[in-house]
Amino acid sequence: MSSSPVACAPVTSNLDTSYGAILGGVCLGFMFYGANCLQIFVYLVNYPKDRIALKVMVAALWASDTAHQILGTIGIWQYLITNYGNYVFLEETHVPLLLALVFSAIVSTIAQLFLTHKIWQLSGGTWIFPAFLVPAALSQLALTCYYVYRAVTDLTVTNLSNLDSYATAVNALAAGTDIIIAVVMCALLARQRTGFSKRTDAMLVRLIILSVNSGLWTGVFALISAVMAGVAVQNDLQYAWLQFCMSPLYCNTILGCLNARDFINNGVHKNRGPAFNLPISNSREGDSQRPVPLNVAVETKQATDTDSLEDQTLQASSRGKQSLGF
């Protein structure tokens, strides 16, 4: 690495759409990473008795996402700070940014396999959904590793541009997998709605909303990134704005699902009528009538009916929560 600018012809690429886009993507990714750190704190405080497998998965997600952010920062620092004015350095790709893509693929694979496992539980152990979701998730990791391998063997920008088809394929595969996961989970949850218990149906509605958010944002980001990478010309890295957000976004999705368990389990309240004061006359012979305020709950019959109805649907309700790990 040189400590002073190298005298040579300046690069012809637009730095705003190349390394400026990478810098913007790294900064935007740190916004989601900050939310992840907060989610980690909430998870550790509220769910200390979770299964070891869940804790290991959360630790792996956070560690991989942290490595992704660190490598992205090191990479853009080398380009814009350490080698400022070194145009020869700008005309090559370098290892830190490429390795960041590998850790991003690890995070997305873990997240998609976790959600696929929940789909398998929701479907009652049916293997038709994991049969194509698991290979799709693993294929993203394999394609990313092959892309990085090809890029490391030839660090020229021209070679990286020739590999854009692999980047497009990875993002398109990720978008399709995320959208399928969201649609399948919503369909399976909607099928379990009982129709005779407002409490159970309300809980399932919350689960459906959570399932949509589980695949919506990652799918949208991956789809837009795939389109931008597919139409990009040489040295145009505008898709990096979204590419470097994928890892923390996947991590945030899974942590949000785990931390939403209290919202789903305790966010549904029994329907109760309003309590209000009624002046009741209490008179004795020879005494004047005095109104005595009594708290009268108009909910007795309604609460009894609701409780009995909920007892009948307790098994269906708990099955829906357990199937999603809640």
What does this structure look like?
This is DUF6534 domain-containing protein. The chain has one domain: Up-down Bundle (Rhopdopsin 7-helix transmembrane proteins). It is elongated. Strand 1 and strand 2 form a beta hairpin. About 17% of the residues have low confidence. With 326 residues, it is mostly helical. The chain has a two-stranded antiparallel ribbon.
Produce a short descriptive summary.
The chain has 326 residues and is mainly alpha-helical. Helix content is 71%, strand content 5%.
Radius of gyration: 27 Å
How far do the termini sit from each other?
Answer: 51 Å
By CATH reckoning, the class would read: Mainly Alpha
Structural class estimated from helices and strands: mainly alpha
Region (Disordered): 300-326
InterPro entries: DUF6534 (IPR045339)
Transmembrane segments: 20-44, 56-77, 97-115, 127-149, 169-191, 203-233, 239-260
Keywords: Membrane, Transmembrane, Transmembrane helix
